[in-house]
Amino acid sequence: MLFTKKCFKIEIFLLLIVLLLSGCSGSRTGEANSSRPSHALPKEIRLGYQVSPNGELLAKVLGLLEKKYPDVKIKWIKFDSGRDVNNAMASGSIDFGLVGTPPGSIGIANKLPYKVYYLHDIIGESEALIVQKDSGIQTLADLKGKKIATTFSSTSHYSLLKALEKEKMDPKKNITILDMQPQDIYAAWKRKDIDAAYIWQPIQTKLINSGGKMITNSKLLAKEGIITGEFGIVSNTFAAHYPNVIRAYVKILNQSVHYYENHPEKSAQLLSKELGLSPEESLKTMKQIIWLDEAKQKEYFGSAGRTGKLASILKDTADYMV
Questions:
Q1: More confident site: 105 or 320
Q2: How far is CA 179 from CA 154, 184, 189, in A?
Q3: Which long-range CB contacts under 8 A does 280-286 form with residues at least 24 apart?
Q4: Rounded Cα gap, residues 198 and 1, in angstroms
Q5: Is the pLDDT of residue 2 over 60?
Q6: Contact 205/285 with Cβ under 8 angstroms?
Q7: What is the CA radius of gyration of the chain?
Q8: DSSP letter string over 48-92?
Q9: pLDDT score, position 322
Q10: pTM score, whole prediction
């Protein structure tokens, strides 16, 4: 997906049309144009998820959606990046998806058929620049002449570019940035084909355990105003036909966040298999992001007459990527 200045001439507040958190009516999500009753259920719900240590992954492991709708087929489809989620949403192969702020802004700019319904988390140390300990890299300035891997159009890619910009380093000069999916980054790392990688968990921990060290991370960048996060999207068609399901899923995600807050060790144990890490490592990665429950959403989604932080974050991200 490509950005152009023309394609990003959108009204950001349209992102918030599915403001389910404040109990929007069915007509606001298009139900008025549907013949289905408000309590109608689909035969199948297809969720495009990523292996991120957040509330949605915990909800998956706890089977909360399955418990809510035992007669509906729940299909969880794993994706490696928001770029792939965008492609799946464009093709109509999923109903729900999870994307980071850069791929989300790309999807919105390209008018992909989805709406934003939930902000899962704000990214902190869970995304970081990891370098080979024997690479001689101590600071960002030492990246000159090195090979750095990241997943293009992702939150990590955006953070890497902004980090280089802060150091007044031109990524087109003296630095090789390679576009790789997380598992490919891990394989290249072990072969010593790359010197560094800006990547998320759980691959980040695997790189550190395989001779890596952290140089900077998204928590430090956030203090400089470079904010990234992960949010939920839902297809326009599904939103129009089943707004009740979206509202229920928001409640489920809220329940999942509170489960983590009340049972952090148990949550880490449950997520360890999904993350491919030990329970102790899993808990560490879960603490590296800011989990947002339903009460914290309004700060980012805003309300009538007041633009929330999420719209500004997405607009700033899009402007930079243009």
A1: 105
A2: 10, 10, 13
A3: 281/202, 281/205, 282/53, 282/202, 284/205, 285/53, 285/126, 285/201, 285/202, 285/204, 285/205, 286/53, 286/54, 286/260
A4: 21
A5: no
A6: yes
A7: 20
A8: EEE--SSHHHHHHHHTHHHHH-TTSEEEEEEESSHHHHHHHHHHT
A9: 84
A10: 0.84
pLDDT in tens, 76-89: 999 999 999 999 99
- Both tokens of residue 128? 């970081």
Amino acid at 319: D
Q: Tell me the sheet residues that pair with 122.
A: 229, 290
Provide the pairing of β-strand 127-132 with 212-217. Answer: antiparallel
Would you state the structure tokens that stand for residue 143, as one six-digit string? 């990246």
Tens digit of each residue's pLDDT (9 = 90 or more) over 190-243: 999 999 999 999 999 999 999 999 999 999 999 998 999 999 999 999 999 999
Average pLDDT, the chain: 89
Cis peptide preceding 202, ω within 30 of 0? yes
Three-state secondary structure string covering 91-158: HCCCCEEEEEHHHHHHHHHCCCCEEEEEEEEEECCCEEEEEEHHHCCCCHHHHCCCEEEECCCCHHHH
Place of tokens 């068609």: 237
State residue 158 phi and psi, 5-degree precision: -60, -45
Q: With beta carbons less than 8 A apart as the criterion, state whether 45 and 75 touch.
A: yes
Q: Which residue has the tokens 């998820």?
A: 49
| Whole-angstrom distance, CA of residue 65 vs CA of residue 105 | 27
Residue 166, Ramachandran bin (φ over 0: left; ψ between -120 and 50: alpha; else beta): alpha
